[in-house]
Specification:
With about 160 residues, the chain is mainly α. Among the domains are: about 60 residues, no CATH class; about 35 residues, no CATH class. About 40% of the residues lie in helices and about 0% in strands. The chain contains 5 helices and 2 strands, in the order E-E-H-H-H-H-H. It has a two-stranded antiparallel ribbon. Strand 1 and strand 2 form a beta hairpin.
Amino acid sequence: MRVDVLGGGIVILPPTISAKGQYRFIKGCLDDLDHLPHLLGLPANVNGQTRPAAPQDTERIREGARNKNLWKHCMRIARHCDDFDALLDAARTRNAEYSPPLPDDEVLKAATSALGYTERGENRFGRPGVFFDAAQVNELISDDPDLYLLLSFLRANNKPDG
């Protein structure tokens, strides 16, 4: 079994006893750790994996989905563009891959919208985050704050479908 260094810290495993109680496996045992899937969102040098590139298959984008696809593309790249002209150029390049391409005013609208979200600090594309509904937060915080922290960490560092 391989051992990974986690952020220069320590790893606590069952049957360690702490001031709050004893750590235990809810299901399985230490031997099962080697069979768990790797966490997503880790740096590329951990476990020798790299994050797969986002799909770029624009040929399959149907006419009714081009605007949304282009807007999402602009949202993903907006923070990496030096200025609006660079963002618009990238949007036009993507649009040229569609068959048929969108009218230029639609491309301009998508790029302008993405820039607005980015400038307001509301562009969360490519930035992992955490979502809980209020009832779940209230229940977890009062019943099991450690579980809330664990779920927050896992949700922040893994895709919902991953």
